Amino acid sequence: MSCTVLPLETSRWWRPLMLWAGLSSTATSQANYDEAKVPAFELPELLRFADGTAIEDADDWRTKRRGEVLALFEEHVYGRMPEPPPSLRIREIEAGSAFDGAATRKQVHIRFARDEDAPSMDILLYLPKEPGAHPVFLALNFYGNPSITSDPAVVASPQLTLDRPRFKRAQRERGFRAHRWPIERILARGYGLATIYCGDLDPDFDDGFQNGVHPLFYEDGQTKPKPDEWGTIGAWAWGLSRALDWFALEPTVDHERVAVLGHSRLGKTALWAGACDERFALTISNNSGCGGAALSRRAFGETVARINKVFPHWFCDNFNRYSGDETALPVDQHMLLALVAPRPVYVASATKDRWADPRGEFLALKHASPVYELLGVEGLTVQAMPNADEPVTGAMGYHLRTGKHDLTDWDWERYLDFADRHLVD
Ligand code: GCU
User: Fold this and answer.
1) Which residue of 15, 146, 280, 380 has the fewest CB atoms within a 10 Å radius of its CB?
2) 302 lines ligand 1 (CB under 6 A)
3) Are 375 and 58 in contact (CB under 8 A)?
4) Cα–ligand 1 centroid distance for 92 (angstroms)
5) Does the pLDDT of residue 412 top 90, yes or no?
6) Closest atom of ligand 1 relative to the 405 alpha carbon
7) Would you give the end-to-end CA distance of the chain in angstroms?
8) What is the pTM of this model?
9) Following DSSP, what letter does each residue of 150-219 receive, concatenated?
10) DSSP code for 51
């Protein structure tokens, strides 16, 4: 079998959707979906210092190698993020009970600078009604906070991008994406859920970084990030860390038990956030694919060239150097997963999500495993990719769900089980 053409390409009404998802017909017909055509590659060494000497123990990793790997991702892939702002201006928007008294809800507005019109984000937080500090899942959403639930008290996301029909629909219909957010189930299992519209931090289109949080950090005369400075994924991840800053001040949240989770482009973001900010206790990537959990060197499904072309704003400018030249990358995505070690990490794929390269996602996890072992934690407990719907547990979780690119109740149940294992005493 040579290049496979997705059947979707033939039906015209899908085209706007596919374009939004970065799946133009050229992209999919040129993509490789043939294992036999995956190029031979060697992964960059995780357990050697940049000067080539071998890493001998956990201290070598903790004190030096981890920093080297992180710096490589900053310089070549996601770009450096700025420090947190000197202070966060936090205003409670509202608080109340939700889901027929089964939960409490709090909404806060967090501004990143003194000016009234400085960049800001709104956090929607649901917690179980019992008093105390709760473990929380933190996840960005694609379509504004009201899109995750029909709860009428959720305030509109004022910065919702309205340039596409799906965003307009999200604005009209509360709970437009509720099927991806089993909130009551999460609460019943004893966890809170916090979410932020990703567009509050940076709208998801290429406008030369004039909107979102980037301009707040420009030096005098600077008009866009430097080649090794953050793109949109960096801005999103930075915002997740600012949510953690707030959690540290919020008595109803146990900020030492926060799981960061994301789907797709927001899964790439969850991984980058979990890698950079060691305060995240647990990191979950759902169908994150290229630039997320999948090994770039396999060039299976979406490639570095394709992602840089269709989403030029997601990564730092330096990442363009590797379009069509993955072997020149000084890192691969197994190293990103290793940055999460020894904290638990979960990678999930879906059988029909070939664009995200499920095998590449599994292999990245497998090749990150030696770092977990070095740090005294059980690594990946299987050698071969498991069958569909047979989750792998341990500090490194994995599953391949039957079905398409999506975040389903079944995925969430696995994440809740994983959190029970690692976040509950
Ligand atoms: C596109 C893109 C992926 C991304 C996905 C999403 O398909 O090519 O890299 O993960 O959109 O975020 O939905």
Assistant:
1) 15
2) yes
3) yes
4) 33
5) yes
6) 13
7) 50
8) 0.94
9) --TTSPP-TT---SSHHHHHHHHSTTTTGGG--HHHHHHTT-EEEEEEHHHHS-SS-SSS-STTGGGGPP
10) T
134 pLDDT tier (thresholds 50, 70, 90): very high
CB of residue 21 inside a 6 A radius of ligand 1 = yes
| Nearest residue to 200 (alpha-carbon basis) of 238, 246, 250, 226 | 238
Our answer on whether the CB atom of 307 is closer than 6 Å to any ligand 1 atom is yes
- Say if ligand 1 is within 6 A of residue 204 CB: no
Measure 161 CA to ligand 1 centroid, in angstroms: 17
DSSP three-state, residue 259: strand
Ligand 1 center to residue 288 CA distance, Å? 8
Ligand 1 pocket: which of 355, 357, 404, 407 to mutate (most atoms within 8 A of CB)? 355
Q: Buried (b) or exposed (e) across 104-113, using 16+ Cβ within 10 A?
A: bbbbbbbbbb
User: Which residues are the active-site residues?
Assistant: 264, 405
Tokens at 378, concatenated: 């059980």
Q: Which residue has the higher pLDDT, 21 or 179?
A: 179
Minimum-distance ligand 1 atom for the alpha carbon of 266 = 12
Nearest Cα residue to atom 8 of ligand 1: 22
* Domain ranges across the chain: 14-78+288-405, 89-262
Structure tokens that stand for 262 in this block = 């994301």
Retrieve residue 354's tokens: 């070939």
Cα dihedral across residues 33, 35, 39, 41: positive or negative: positive
C-alpha span between 117 and 115 (Å, rounded): 5
Mean pLDDT of 366-374: 98
> If you measure from the C-alpha of residue 21 to the centroid of ligand 1, how many angstroms do you get, rounded to a whole number?
5
Helices (H), 314-408: 333-340, 358-374
4-8, 49-53, 271-275, 328-332, range with the lowest pLDDT: 4-8
The pLDDT, as a whole number, for residue 29 is 57
Hunting for tokens 């900010």 — which residue is that? 277
Per-residue model confidence as pLDDT tens digits over 98-109: 999 999 999 999
For residue 106 and ligand 1, the question of a CB distance below 6 A is answered with no
CA 22 to centroid of ligand 1, rounded, Å:
6
Nearest to 258 by CA among 132, 393, 392, 133: 133
